Amino acid sequence: MSTPLENYLKEAGSSLNAAMTAYVANLQTVSQVAPEIAADVVNELENQRSHLKLVASENYCSLSTQLAMGNLLTDKYAEGFPEHRYYGGCVNIDAVENTAAREAEKLFGADYAYVQPHSGADANLVAYWAILSKTVEMPTLEELGVKSLAELSGEQFDMLRKRFGNQRLMGLDYSCGGHLTHGYKMNVSARMFESHPYGVDEKTGLLDYDAIEKQAMEVKPLILLTGFSAYPRKINFKRFRQIADKCGAVLMVDMAHFAGLVAGKVFTGEYNPVEWADVVTSTTHKTLRGPRGALILCKKEFTDYVNKGCPMVLGGPLGHVMAAKAVALKEANTQAYRDYASNVVKNAQALAKSCMDKGMILQTGGTENHLMLIDVTTYGLTGKQAEAALFKCGVTANANALPYDKNGAWWTSGIRIGTPGLTTLGMNEKDMEEVASIIDLVLKGTKPGLTKEGKPAKGKIELDPAVEADAKKRVQSLLSKHVLYPELDLQFLKKEFVK
Ligand code: PLP
Predict the structure, then answer these.
(1) What is the pLDDT of residues 287-338, one digit of tens each?
(2) pTM > 0.85
(3) How high is the pLDDT of residue 197?
(4) Is the CB of 187 under 6 A from ligand 1?
(5) Does the structure show a pLDDT above 90 at 426?
(6) Is 152 within any annotated ligand binding site?
(7) How far is Cα 394 from Cα 205, in angstroms, rounded to an integer?
């Protein structure tokens, strides 16, 4: 019996392409051990091809980036940092890490880049500990008058906790668009620090810089943190720098969401965090369009502390993912990528306008970045209901709390949508009108479902079947013009790997 690769080579003839060949070879090799995993990969391709990806934090990385991850670089331990490893034989991992780090420095104009963090949450933990290590000096055992920490009295230990831990962190409140790791009460960041979140203006939904300055002068945080998961506007980092300087804080920015807009030179001057912040963290898989992972950029004086990410927080770095970061960072330093970043914002603004033309209420009245928050209570729905109805019709979005949301953080009153994925597929401002029209159609055709007792249930929906059919057709029509990874022949992959 011939193998999938042999079948592909025979079928493709002279129209053989390298990416498809690599995918078939990869899946064939995987399926020899775990056919169900090969099938999952193919099924995920089908799922992503048949849904409009409006999740603002997701994207589609290039096949070059993906293929850089599937190799033996995963086998090497390399704790430490280049030329300072806890293991021997790291010369090639050093080369990979150095390439990725230098690419990041070049792309963002940063003094130093650390590309080891496995995720955005890890990157923030490394940044917190780096800032603590640099700014809060631990007394020596001698100064404490003990031979080991175990000998400390309760009082001494408390004093140490106050000096080294329990410093103050001031980040954007989770309910106003900040991330869990920015001091949310259920996250370790709120255990490490005394968390003093700031909010947005209740009427406008915007950051109120004067109010943040007033709060910062009262709180005197060790770290003033800005950046967001759900805020549809630019942030003025120059203004944040002034506030940090005035209250004596370290300025940290988490640009996980909008790193691609910084890389693509859409956010420049006072809107470019790298120019103003001491430490900048970012994921690499959202607007930046790289592999799942993260990085840290910092001013020179933080380098030694950030480099201690391992052993302070991290274990061994993921060599294969750092390789993929290097590929994605190189891609981001091209005119094609800068055009992409600028189209992400143009598309977001076109989508926001079309949504508002349909009568939707958008948080802050629009967007200046890649995402927007839509109040779905005007359709009589919760965010969870809107999310479920849209998904049934082939649109992936996520429920998201609006600031000071009466429906709370689980059911929510809003959905968050964004354009990084659709723009990667090549969609334009005209397509965004159709996307807004599909969203409106689906939400108008959805009613809250009922509990057994006949009361409206916050999580259930009743979706008009005619609306569902129409919306699905329109979604598929849009997607058929903008195929995800057109190099990959889905029907062939299904035939060979999904039994
Ligand atoms: N920071 C921000 C602003 C985010 O939006 C996210 C994820 O959504 C993270 C950090 C965490 O990233 P990860 O999921 O890679 O840990």
Answers:
(1) 999 999 999 999 999 999 999 999 999 999 999 999 999 999 999 999 999 9
(2) yes
(3) 98
(4) no
(5) yes
(6) no
(7) 30
Residues 381 and 278 in one domain: no
- At residue 453, the pLDDT reads 86
Q: Which residues span the domain enclosing 11?
A: 4-60+489-497
pLDDT of 455: 83
Cβ atoms 401, 390 nearer than 8 A? no
Q: Is the pLDDT of residue 127 over 90?
A: yes
Q: Assign residue 454 the CATH number of its domain.
A: 3.90.1150.10
For residue 230, which atom of ligand 1 is closest to its CA? 5
Domains of the chain: total: 3
Confirm whether 157 is domain-assigned: no
- Identify whether residues 111 and 19 lie together within a single domain: no
Q: Ligand 1 in contact with 4 (CB < 6 A)?
A: no
Q: Quick one: 240 and 183 in the same domain?
A: yes
- 256 close to ligand 1 (CB < 6 Angstrom): yes
Whole-number mean pLDDT of the chain? Answer: 96
Query: Do 299 and 350 lie in a common domain?
Result: no
152 within a domain of the structure (yes/no): no
Q: What is the CA radius of gyration of the chain?
A: 24
Atom of ligand 1 nearest to the CA of 120: 12
Same domain, 78 and 178: yes
Question: What is the reported pLDDT for 140?
Answer: 85
pLDDT in tens, 184-237: 999 999 998 999 999 999 999 999 999 999 999 999 999 999 999 999 999 999
Q: Does the pLDDT at position 284 exceed 80?
A: yes
Whether 79 is covered by a domain: the verdict is yes
Contact assessment for residue 425 and residue 80, using Cβ atoms and an 8 Å cutoff: no
Are 186 and 248 within one domain?
yes
Does 84 appear as a known binding residue?
no
Answer whether residue 198 is part of any domain: yes
Known catalytic residues are: 77, 79, 254, 283, 286, 292
Maximal C-alpha separation, the chain: 79
| Residue identifier of the C-alpha nearest atom 11 of ligand 1 | 120
Same domain, 235 and 275: yes
Q: Are residues 89 and 54 in the same domain?
A: no
Residue nearest to atom 14 of ligand 1 (CA): 120
Share of the chain above pLDDT 70, in %: 99
Indicate the burial class of 18 (C-beta count within 10 angstroms; 0-12, 13-18, 19 or more). Answer: exposed
CATH at 322: 3.40.640.10
Residue 349 CB less than 6 A away from ligand 1: no
Whether the predicted pLDDT of 432 surpasses 90: yes
pLDDT at residue 220, rounded to an integer: 94
